[in-house]
Amino acid sequence: MNTQKVVVVGGGPAGMMAAGTAGRRGCAVTLLEKNMRLGRKLLITGKGRCNLTNMMDVEGIIANIPVNGKFLYSALYRFSNREVVAFFQDWGLPTKVERGGRVFPVSDRSVDVVRALEKYMDHSQVQVMTGEATGILVDGSAVSGVQLKDGRRIPADRVIIATGGRSYPLTGSTGDGYRFAAVLGHTITPLKPALVPLESSTPWIREVQGLALKNVAIKVLNNAGKTIYTDFGELLFTHFGVSGPIILSASTHLEQADSYRLLIDLKPALTPEQLDLRLQRDFMKNGRKVFHNALTELLPRTLIPVMVELAAVDPDKPVNQINKVERQRLAALLKELALDITGLRPIAEAIVTAGGVAINEIDPTTMESKLVKGLFFAGEVIDVNAYTGGFNLQIAFSTGHLAGNSC
Ligand SMILES: Cc1cc2nc3c(=O)[nH]c(=O)nc-3n(C[C@H](O)[C@H](O)[C@H](O)COP(=O)(O)OP(=O)(O)OC[C@H]3O[C@@H](n4cnc5c(N)ncnc54)[C@H](O)[C@@H]3O)c2cc1C
Question: How many domains does the chain have?
């Protein structure tokens, strides 16, 4: 029988999984959460539906973790996506698989994910305590407890830091764990927003805010004109710039303070030659229409005035009078609609925080600190982050499970 006293700091998905797992092994576990309720960020995931994992194989999952994915091999193999699905099934939450392998609760309610984790912890006799940790106590080179804001101290043989990142701070994720780890000598790699919308200074953006484009291809170029990211999928124009799944993924590869050029291919299925033929056909069919009325089959309505202006063609010119140079100018725009990207939105608006506790200071087979005995990390506080698709929650569950099993 394991009689270790374990304190888990943070009641998000990583902390709840860690606490329940340590409790099942017989440890006396206290889960400390500063909010009155657990999993506040979890509740807003997947637009309230919670995309809790992805059904790709483990190699595919690692490929979707662009920052330090390989560090997670042990954690992901020991508690894989299939085990996450089986785990939730066991705790009363059947799941379903949607487009791109994304897994959601059948109920489409993230609150049911929180409830399943609560049930797991309850069954493992985890004591849930409301309180805010302000530091980790150590005795020599080993942890001895957790200091609370109200002056109380909770003694512990093991402490798992699962305080999350620094994004969406109103949910409770205010980056406290980075501070706790730094005080104990851990390196915190620079924190920056990831999976975050991009800001643009291109003036016409405001005319198309709210417009979503499906099935477009994008290319992001750096200041030297080098392509640093390409993707295909859905994009959304906002009042400040661009968002949507492919933009969020692109942001992971951009620096907050740098500027970039975004090229949108509105017709990725057509080669330039095929597009020119399509335009010729369209213009022939609509010969008597004026230019701005002849584009409705080609473009979403709100984008037409923008494209007409950028193509520098008189909007009232009859289509049968449009010359080859003008048509080719339009074709070029359709293949490469350019936007100036001036930076990333702030970290508070990011889906995840990039950076965190340096992975070379954590044992990947246990999640224990290599610097302080009895100290473990789980979830977003670690310097790992993934694309959208359920991968970030899989990281939280896998690292939480491994830490809970190892402490
Ligand atoms: C809008 C949004 C949608 C998302 N959708 C998805 C999705 O569908 N799928 C997906 O895979 N990922 C999604 N994510 C990312 C995912 O939510 C996070 O990666 C995940 O929640 C990280 O889990 P965690 O347990 O490490 O940290 P968190 O969920 O941030 O939990 C940390 C907990 O620690 C508590 N805490 C912090 N400091 C202290 C302290 N000092 N004392 C006590 N408690 C403390 C916090 O209050 C919080 O409850 C989304 C994120 C956002 C913002």
Answer: 2
Per residue in 162-188, pLDDT (tens digit) is 999 999 999 999 999 999 999 999 999
Which domain CATH number covers 312?
1.10.8.50
Pocket of ligand 1 (CB under 6 A): 9-15, 32-35, 40-42, 44-46, 50-51, 132-133, 162-164, 167-168, 172-174, 176, 351-352, 379-380, 390-393, 396
The model's pLDDT over 127-173, given as tens digits with 9 standing for 90+, comes to 999 999 999 999 999 999 999 999 999 999 999 999 999 999 999 99
Look at ligand 1, atom 37, and give the residue with the nearest C-alpha: 163
Helix (H) or strand (E) holding 20: helix 13-24
Strand order in the sheet with 375-377: 127-130, 28-33, 5-9, 158-161, 375-377
Amino acid, single-letter form, for residue 133: A
Owning domain of residue 181: 5-193+347-406
Residue nearest ligand 1's atom 51 by CA: 351
Q: What distance in angstroms lies between residue 218's CA and the mean position of ligand 1's atoms?
A: 29
- Do 150 and 263 lie in one domain? The reply is no
